[in-house]
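idk why but the lab printer keeps eating my pages so im just putting this in chat instead. protein + magnesium ion:
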Amino acid sequence: MTQPTWDAVDAYFSDTLVGHDPVLEAAAAAADAAGLPPIAVAPNQGKLLHLLALTVGARRILEVGTLGGYSAIWLARALPADGTLITLEIDPKHAEVARGNLARAGLDKVAEVRLGSALDSLAVIGAEGGEPFDLVFIDADKVNNPAYFAWALELTRPGSLIVVDNVVRGGAVADAASTDAAVVATRRLHDVIAAEPRVTATSVQTVGSKGYDGFTLARVQN
Ligand code: SAH
Ligand code: DHB
Ligand code: MG
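predcted complex ->
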């Protein structure tokens, strides 16, 4: 099975279970029109994030890596009216597109895009001392994933869920000899998680319109 099959199956699942969604389609179109890279989560993956947020009863969500706000819309739609999503983005153009998309989705009251390097923004959020986040979605530069994960642990509570995108990257994660910085960091992330008693975690491989990749899911333990 190769990419055309994965594309067809993703289209089938998205057609049947996700459906036509003008707000999300407009957000994706606006990101394309602005020249953003086509690396947002797929529709059925976005819905998975939405389901995970609903399942943990998320009231506060943190996202690292906004792009055009596509995954942020899926996540924020799982929040109650008084919920909060903070999403972190380093690129001013991406942040601007995302703010427009979130406003058109009617989510600008619950969703805030913070511009800047995610590590800087995370330090600010930590210093603000707000309520813990119930779900963290890590999907920015992969080399910083160990640091983003450490912050996610700092900013969550027992029962929170931490999701990391793009942990497989075509299978390269299994190559212990890899010198690719993203692969090295992803392997370090797995070592950190394996040695971390505060979480229980697994990683799963996925195929689909985004190619061959996968997610890590880690639950903060009681
Ligand atoms: N979560 C989005 C996709 C994010 S793509 C979705 O599925 O819709 C990754 C994003 O992370 C890009 O917009 C990129 O500009 C941003 N990014 C990369 N390095 C970053 C950093 N150091 N701090 C914050 N954002 C960063
Ligand atoms: C890339 C980044 C992502 O977050 C993703 O889901 C797919 C690809 C990338 O940088 O290539
Ligand atoms: Mg990603």
